[in-house]
Structure formats: structure tokens, C-alpha cells
Amino acid sequence: MFERLLTSFQNIFKIPELRTRVLFTLTMLAVYRVGAHIPTPGINGESLSKFLQEQGGALLGFLDIFSGGSLSRLTIFALGIMPYISASIILQLLTVVIPHLSKLAKEGERGRKKIIQYTRYGTIVIALIQGFGIAVGLEQMKGGEFILTGGWPFRFMTVITLTAGTAFLMWLGEQITERGIGNGISLIIFSGIVARLPSAVAQTFDLYRVGQLSFVLLVMLTAVMVGVVAAIVFLESGRRKIPVQYAKRVVGRRVYGGQSTHIPLKINTAGVIPPIFASSIIAFPATIAGFIQYPWVKSIGEQLAPGSVLYTLLYVGLIVFFCFFYTAVVLNPVDMAENMKKYGGFIPGIRPGQRTSDYVYNVLTRVTFVGAVYLAVVCVIPEFLIYKLNVPFYFGGTSLLIVIGVGLDTAQQIESHMLMRNYEGFLETGALKGRSG
Asked: How far apart are CA 286 and CA 63, in angstroms?
């Protein structure tokens, strides 16, 4: 098994196009990690980082995972890619209710480019608002102790710097998607999470070495991590197959159809989209509240912090909502039934047309419900262990879900390039099943 994996990795660099794409992706991610250590001008980054790590609480730790540590250090990438994700959420929701956007979504490549353009504009607007909130919050935090000079020049510089950082990350993600391998936005979040895992593991073992963490708790933590990883890998590749039979058709002297196939409905069609979207929506007001030193604003921020009852309820509710919403956007049972009928296909025992679309809709609803419950459990249970049982290692279900999901997707795309050029894939039993597979 190890030898096969080693051979597969060697084969990656034997394919010129794939080698170029992989190296381009790694280079762009390296640029992102370098930028994550460039401080925002006019800020005493070292003392601010120390203060935020001591006083930031659960919310800052949660958001800092997605920014790769940039938020706690307040670097030029402090806002991360979250404004882009927030803008994407808003555009997808508006596509359902605004006829103009709905029409654009059906116009193919032209419409898609227009929606992406609107998303970029929305990203800049959200980044400007968040950047201004952070600038004002820094001026009020401990009497402006963490800034060199206050006033509008500082606010202007901070807003421009943080907004430019987000715009650059947005461009970086689009370049990776177009010229690299995998989804650029997801890989940026992925790299930010992975970059912090080694230090978190080292801190955990340091706690065990000095006696603050018992051996039993360490074993339990490892067992939970392995169990969640195994569950994610198993369920991410799980599918409900709907059998489809195609009738024979005679065109000229040739006979077409007559074969049996199936429609694979993934248990988790939405992938990591729901937890990322849910986190982004909750984080938007909570981030602003964390930097504004008013009692009622701070109270809202505390209620929306990870581990609180309100946060958990909102998080689960939004995950379930986005599971169904994103699945409805991606898969349309009516279109599926019409396409099957057009090409002479039918589900055994189900009449073509409306009956077929109703059947597919019912199956898809049940499968999506299972996927939503799975996502909610995976994302909430580890947070419960962290904030209620005080497990001293940030082992977030959302983080693991993103890392594993994005890793499977990227590996599946690499394997597709290899199989197209008659090279063996990573697994002897068959192709990897990523979300896009």
C-alpha cells in the first residue's frame, strides 16, 4: 500500500500539466502563508496578539482557525476569506428571490461570470465594514494601547490594508481554481487550518509531559479524533444509488440504449459548504462585537461565542438549512426526471415524468436529512468536548471536516488527471470518491 502511494506521488511529477498545476498551487499557498505573517501598519502586533490570545476567548480561537492565525496577530490577512464566503451566501440566497439573478444563473458561463463579479463587489463592501469595525475597536481597546497613532488616518490605513488583503486572497483563490488543482478558496481555508495543527499537537503533548493532561484523557482524545476522521471519510464517500433503466432506441441502423445505470445521490451533497457558511454568518456580527467595548455589544458577542447555547442552536440550524438549500440549488429532481424521459430512461416501477421527479425528491430529502444530521453531529460534538469538558486541544469537527473534505476533493482531482493519462490512481480498489466525483 505504501509503495503504491509512493509510486502515485512520483507519477504526479511525470505528467507535465499536472506537475505545473500542483507546483502552482503550492506556490500560491506559500505566498498566502508568508502574507499571514505581515503585520498591519500602525499596530503593536506583538502585545496585541498576546492580549487577544489571553482575552479573546472561544470565538477568537474559533475564527483564528479559519484565518490560519492571522486574526490573533492582526496581519494583512486578518479578515481571511470569510468576507468572500459571506458575499457568496448572500448572492446565492438572493438568486432564489430576485428574478434578475435567477435569470443570470440559468444563462450558463456568461451568467456565472456576472454573478462572480457581483460576489467580488459584495466581498469588498463586507471587508470595508469589518475592517472599519476592527479599526474603531482597536482605538477603544484599553485606551488605544495597541495602536501607534489613532484618528482617521489610522482607520483609513487599517480599512484599506485589511480590505486589500481580503481582495488579494480572493484573487489568489480564483487563480488556484483556474490554473492550479482543487478549489482555491477551500484550499486557502485548508492551509490555514493545517498550518496550526502541528503547534496544537505539540502543545497537547507538552501538557501531557508536565502532567496537566492525564494519559487517560490523551487516549480518549486520540480515540475520538480517529473515530471522527473514520466517520467523515466513510460518510463523505457514501451514496444512495437510484437504479435507472434505458429503453432500446433504433436510430437508422444502430440500436442505442438498453443498459442499466444508476443516479448516485451523495449523503452529503453540500460537502463542507454548510458549516463554512454557518460559521461565516455567525462570525460576522460576533467579530465586530468583539472589538467594540460597549457592555451590550460585548454581551451579544459572548452569546454568539462557540460553546454557548445560542451559538450551538444557531450553528445546528444553519447547517441543516444550508444542507437543504445547497442541495436544492445543485440538484433539481424535475430536471433529472425530464432528462431521463428525454433519453428514454426510467426508474423501474416508477412512471416517467411527475412520478419520477416526486420519487427522486423524496429520496433526496431523506438522504439530505441524514447528511444534515451527520454534519451537525460532527461539527458540534467535538466543540462540546472542548468547551464543556475543557479538552486542551482545539480539535474542532468543522476543522476536521474541511481538512478531510478538501483533501479528498483535491486527491480525487489529481487522480482524475492521472487516470486520464493511463497512470494508476492512489488506491488499488478503485478511484477515490471526492465530493466532485
From this structure: 10
